From TrEMBL:
This is alkaline phosphatase. Binds 1 Mg(2+) ion. Binds 2 Zn(2+) ions. PANTHER family: ALKALINE PHOSPHATASE. GO terms for molecular function: alkaline phosphatase activity; metal ion binding. The keyword Phosphoprotein applies.
Amino acid sequence: MMGGGSGYLMDKSRNGSRSDGLNVDLEWQKLSDNRRVLRNMLDFDEVIAAANEKLLGIFSPSHLPYYLDELLAGAKTVPLLWEMTIKAIEQLQNEQNGYFLVVEAVLEICASERNLKRNENESVRLIQCPQALRNPMARIVGGTIDIAEHENMMHVAFKEVYDFEEAIRKAREMTDANETLIIVTADHGHALTLPGYLDSDETIFGSDSTLLPFPDVDCPRDRVQ
């Protein structure tokens, strides 16, 4: 499992948001010797696919930062959605009986105090996968399409969509279409507001006053105009 949301997994004494004294990341790591917690890009880059190793990547306290923000700032503090997808597939391909991978382009890993509690043995009660999914399972939580659309930031939203598209493309490149089912879906639609009256030759991004003029980024303009 990889994404943001480390604050939900850590006690306040470790700059987390939990008030129950539970550190989910540390408790999870104690469950077996083959578990590794990834907290930054250095940890992420050091991972080499290995059979039976379980990974928990928590790269930011809450949502992962917008990739476009990091690009404009000349910084990269977290892996991209498509990079986490590659890492997950490389890891899961060691499984002889196949695997189930969820790549989610919104929100962060969230373990609330209501959902994760201590039991009588002071160990963590983790949410179990459905019995039908007996093969290894991984979850990648990355892009923040929904959040950018809530804030009406079109540049950011489209770049997040492009990142999601790259994750799908990488997954198709790394798997055999004859034995792999890839489903792309959404749990709800969204809307963006286009204020004013745009000329036919004007980009819709003109309504986003935070990023004018259009930044020189690697998101193909012909895909989003």
